[in-house]
Amino acid sequence: MDLLALERTLTELDHVRILNLVRRYRRVEVPAAPRLPIEDVLDTCSIVPSRQAPPDVVTMYTQVALRDVESGESSKVALCYPADAEPTAGFVSVLSPIGAGLLGLGLGAIAHWRTPAGEERVAEIVAILFQPESSGDYTT
């Protein structure tokens, strides 16, 4: 699935922080790595001030409920930065395929990503359980 085909909204703060994270990743950790999926999101998203973030959009540290389109299985994940990632506990990095697949999408959107094994996964965002900006946190 082409990440460019999906409408994405990022807050200014999330955009700047993730862009800096990607730049640091490229410069220090893996300069010759293939393009990350999150880079396509950063290049094509709409950017809004944090205080204007729609309450139904996945921002950093948003917790969402997902429904796998194929199996119907439900799951909950929270989008975070790599240092806070703990996939077995539901904390997924924004640099991971699922993180890039979710960032900036709205409630009811269908997220697409590839697992590390190369399998395509498709899930619907069925609920926004928590979004920092909706609770008045504009700096997380």
TrEMBL record:
Gene Ontology MF terms in the entry: DNA binding; RNA polymerase binding; translation elongation factor activity
Domain of life: Bacteria
Gene Ontology biological-process annotations: DNA-templated transcription elongation; regulation of DNA-templated transcription elongation
Keywords: Elongation factor, Protein biosynthesis
SUPFAM superfamilies assigned to the protein according to its UniProt record, in alphabetical order: FKBP-like
InterPro entries for the chain: GreA/GreB_C_sf (IPR036953), Tscrpt_elong_fac_GreA/B_C (IPR001437), Tscrpt_elong_fac_GreA/B_fam (IPR023459)
Entry keyword annotation includes Amino-acid biosynthesis: no
UniProt cross-references to Pfam families, sorted A to Z: GreA_GreB (PF01272)
Transcription elongation factor GreA/GreB C-terminal domain mapped to chain residues: 54-128
Name under which the protein is recorded: Transcription elongation factor GreAB
Native source organism of the sequence: Roseateles aquatilis
